[in-house]
């Protein structure tokens, strides 16, 4: 990711070239391409390769998986050339690290969170704290109780789950995350991003960053 001078913004579940062009124009830090089989935003490798060609240099390309097999992950790496992997399922540390690439690991915050959950995956670049329950998929559109995030944790994390232009200012100022991850909160329908929401989301994150200086 970029130098730690502002809250990092990741737009996930991108499915259209025009939306990626706008995301690049808005200066987001990362764009997520989804390969999880259960996702309505899932891309084929061919679709992802075409979209990846439109992502500006300097923006992280994140390939998202959920319990995909190792062969599928490797095919995506070879064909799409992501810069970061993201794992949302039951993948253990050995599996995630086996590809010798930076990775994010999702932590389910919507159910009973194990006391040591945030200490798992020490080799992850960052954890992604999402609102789904353990064993469920992300992209629920619902926020979890942010007070459940341990204040003493030194792990970098991206806040996800139920974020949208109306609450992202409060989220950033309350939680001070390393980054934020949004998908359904900037959509008009699954996989269909809304340009006005994308713009306002970025504006509100930057407004929060300015208020903290």
Kindly describe this structure.
The structure is a single chain. This protein has 213 residues and is an alpha/beta fold. It has one domain (8-211): TIM Barrel. The protein contains six helices and ten strands. The strands form two sheets. The protein has an eight-stranded parallel barrel. The chain has a two-stranded antiparallel sheet with strand order 9-10. Helix 1 runs parallel beside helix 6, helix 2 (45-52) packs parallel to helix 3 and helix 5 packs parallel to helix 6. The radius of gyration is 16 Å and the shape is globular.
SSE blueprint:
Blueprint: E1 8-11, H1 17-26, E2 30-34, H2 45-52, E3 60-65, H3 70-80, E4 84-87, H4 93-97, E5 103-108, E6 126-130, E7 157-159, H5 168-175, E8 179-182, E9 187-189, E10 192-193, H6 195-211
Using brief descriptors, characterize the structure shown.
globular, Aldolase_TIM, alpha/beta, 8-stranded parallel beta barrel, 213 residues, TIM Barrel, 6 helices, two-stranded antiparallel ribbon
Q: Characterize the main sheet.
A: 8 strands, parallel, barrel
Level-1 CATH class name: Alpha Beta
Oligomer, anyone?
single chain
- Broad structural category: alpha/beta
State the domain count.
1
Give the neighbour order of strands across the main sheet: 1-2-3-4-5-6-7-8
> Could you state the order of secondary-structure elements as H and E?
EHEHEHEHEEEHEEEH
- Which architecture would the CATH scheme give at its second level? Alpha-Beta Barrel
Number of helix segments? 6
Shape: globular
Question: Could you estimate the helical fraction of the residues in percent?
Answer: 25-40%
State the end-to-end distance. Answer: 21 Å
CATH superfamily: Aldolase class I
The proportion of strand residues reads 15-25%
The number of distinct β-strands equals 10
- Could you tell me the CATH topology label: TIM Barrel
Rg over C-alpha atoms, rounded to the nearest angstrom: 16 Å
Q: Residue-averaged pLDDT, rounded? A: 89
Low-confidence parts lasting 5 or more residues at pLDDT below 50? none
């Amino acid at each position: 990711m970029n130098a730690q001078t502002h809250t990092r913004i990741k737009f996930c579940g991108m499915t259209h070239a025009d939306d990626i062009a706008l995301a690049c124009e808005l200066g987001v830090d990362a764009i997520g391409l989804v390969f999880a089989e259960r996702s309505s935003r899932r891309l084929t490798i061919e679709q992802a390769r075409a979209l990846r060609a439109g992502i500006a240099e300097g923006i992280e390309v994140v390939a998202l998986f959920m319990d995909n097999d190792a062969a599928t992950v490797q095919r995506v790496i070879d064909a799409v050339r992501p810069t970061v992997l993201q794992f949302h399922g039951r993948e253990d540390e050995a599996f995630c690290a086996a590809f010798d690439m930076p990775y994010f690991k999702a932590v389910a915050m919507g159910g009973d969170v194990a006391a040591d959950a945030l200490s798992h995956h020490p080799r992850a670049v960052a954890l992604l704290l999402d609102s789904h329950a353990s064993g469920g998929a992300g992209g629920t559109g619902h926020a979890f109780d942010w007070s459940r995030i341990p204040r003493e944790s030194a792990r970098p994390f991206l806040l996800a789950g139920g974020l949208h232009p109306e609450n992202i200012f409060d989220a950033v100022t309350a939680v001070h995350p390393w980054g934020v991850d949004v998908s359904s909160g900037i959509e008009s329908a699954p996989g269909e991003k809304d340009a006005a929401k994308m713009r306002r989301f970025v504006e509100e994150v930057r407004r929060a960053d300015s208020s903290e200086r």
